[in-house]
Amino acid sequence: MLCRKCARGLYSGGHFFGILDEGRLFFKTDAQSQMDDTARGMGPFTHASKGKVMTMACHEAPPEVLEQPQELVGWARKAIGIAAGFKKPANRAERDCDSVKSGQPVHPVNPARE
Q1: Could you give the CA distance from residue 45 to residue 102 in angstroms, rounded to a whole number?
Q2: Residue 101 burial (CB < 10 Å; 0-12/13-18/19+)?
Q3: How many whole angstroms separate alpha carbon 63 and alpha carbon 75?
Q4: pLDDT tens per residue, range 81-101
Q5: Torsion of Cα atoms, 22 then 100 then 57 then 21, to 10°
Q6: pTM over 0.70
Q7: pLDDT tens, 32-68?
Q8: Which candidate, 3, 19, 74, 84, has a CA 20 to 30 Å from the CA of 13?
Q9: What distances in angstroms separate CA 74 from CA 36, 61, 94, one per listed residue?
Q10: Which residues contact 100 (CB under 8 A, 6 or more apart)?
C-alpha cells in the first residue's frame, strides 16, 4: 500500500500515533509491537518519497480489533505511549537517518523504552 494525499495522521497531545488511509488504520509501533503485528500478518504503512518506497513505524490494526471498541481503545493508548517515547530528531541529518528503505524500522530501538 502506498500513501496517498487522502492519508490522515492521528495525534494525541502533540504526538503522532497513527494513520488512517483508505479505511485502514495503522498504529505507531516499537520493536516489540512490530514483531507482534507482523506475526499476526499485519503489514507496515509505506509511502513513496523521492522515487523510493519508505516504511513507517506504523502497522495496520487487525480487523477484529476495529470491531471491538474497548480493544481498539487499548491499541490506541499503547500507540500513544509508544509515540510519546520517541524523540523527534533535531536536525535534517538525523531525520533522514530515521527514514529507511522498506522493511526496516523507522526509529532506532531504545531498550530503555521497552
Answers
A1: 10
A2: exposed
A3: 12
A4: 999 987 665 544 444 334 333
A5: -10
A6: no
A7: 998 888 888 899 998 888 889 888 889 999 999 999 9
A8: 3
A9: 15, 12, 31
A10: 54, 55, 106
* Residue in 18, 35, 19 with CA at minimum distance from that of residue 83: 18
Task: Dump the DSSP string for 20-59.
Answer: EETTEEEEE--HHHHHHHHHTTPPEEEEEETTEEEEEEEE
Record: fold of 8-109:
Yope Regulator; Chain: A, (3.30.1460)
Residue type for position 96:
D
Q: Which residue has the higher pLDDT, 70 or 90?
A: 70
Using alpha carbons, select from 106, 54, 103 the residue that is nearest to residue 83.
Answer: 106
Give domain limits for the chain. 8-109
Q: How far is CA 74 from the centre of its chain?
A: 15
